[in-house]
Amino acid sequence: MSENKNLCLRLSYEEYVAFDTICKEKGFSKTGKIRELIRNLIKEELPGVKASAGEWAKIEAAIREIQQGEYLTLEELKRKLRNGPLDHHKDRQDGRRKDREARSEEIRSGSMTFARARTAR
């Protein structure tokens, strides 16, 4: 699944009350309704937008994911964040570990010069 992005929305008090009232009376989730409105906007407006071939490929892949229901709810995202390090943090930690191991091996084997050992820290 592609990376999720957050969107902050500011409404006037009157707009918020009207939207909240509609959602409550119709049984809509506010987040779900906003997501639906954005999806409909994308379907209607996207064909008229100019994008590069690479951007179109990403956009089309994201639309397929949305249509297949591949997205996280806020609760799922919070749970995922609580349960451990993010993948990109893990990759960074693995990279650092490999760099330290390589430097240690160079020092043990004597192939690292004194100047290189001082700058490798």
Helices and strands in order, then pairings?
Elements: H1 13-26, H2 30-45, H3 53-67, H4 74-82, H5 87-109, H6 114-119
Structural key phrases:
121 residues
Question: Can you tell me about this structure?
Answer:
The chain has 121 residues and is an all-alpha fold. It folds into two domains: 1-84, no CATH class; 85-121. The chain contains six helices and no strands. The chain has helices at residues 13-26, 30-45, 53-67, 74-82, 87-109, 114-119. The longest helix has 23 residues, at 87-109. The two termini are 37 Å apart.
What structural class is derived from the secondary structure elements?
A: mainly alpha
Number of helices: 6
| Low-pLDDT regions | none
- CA-based gyration radius: 24 Å
What's the number of structural domains? 2
Through-space gap between termini: 37 Å
Helix-strand pattern, N to C? HHHHHH
Mean pLDDT: 76
Give the overall shape, derived from the CA principal axes.
elongated
**Helicity range:** 55-70%
Most strands sheet: none
